[in-house]
Amino acid sequence: AQKCGVCFQPPSIILIYRDNVQDKTRQRIMPIRNFSRFSDCSRAAEQLKNNPRHKPYLEGVSLRQLEKLYSLLRDHLEGQSLSESLGRYHHEHTIDPEEDMNKLDDKELAKRKSIMDELFEKNRKRRDDPDFVYNVEVDFPQDEHLEACAWDTESDEEM
A single GO CC term, please (predicted)? Predict the structure, then answer.
């Protein structure tokens, strides 16, 4: 797979992929049936990815990308513009560092963790990467005032 996108009219997922057998770039249009604005995007994405007709072509496409395309289609069915839908999706799938995750329910916490895992894998440096450095040493400035934390000030006798 090289590119994957959504077409609103008629509702379909479009995949541009490289056919290595014939050494050609091809386009596959996968129609979306029985999908409404009340449908579950993650379930629809799983069904498409596991469909025997499309499975070999969708191996290179992540489930999260398919979910995003389905959510864009659902928002279009609800009457939202593409920019509104992309903005909402971006807001829902970014991590706010100031957010207290202790107050989230299990489903939302699992969603945030999967976003963090995906971000970690995206930024992870592997030995095969061209800019990989084995032993990185960083000197931290010592002349700045260090803030003390409450757990630093407790003595061993208090514990």
Answer: ciliary basal body
Give the residue among 2, 5, 1 at the shortest CA–CA distance from 65: 5
For the chain, the residue count is 159
Note the pLDDT tens digit of each residue in 49-94.
Answer: 999 998 988 988 888 889 999 999 999 999 999 899 988 888 888 8
Tally of CA atoms within 13 A in the half-sphere of 57 that contains its CB: 21
Reference 32, options 57, 7, 53; nearest CA is 7
The single-letter code of the amino acid at 30 is M
What torsion do the CA atoms of 65, 56, 27, 69 make, to the nearest 10 degrees? -20
Residue 41 amino acid letter: C
45 residue type, one letter? A
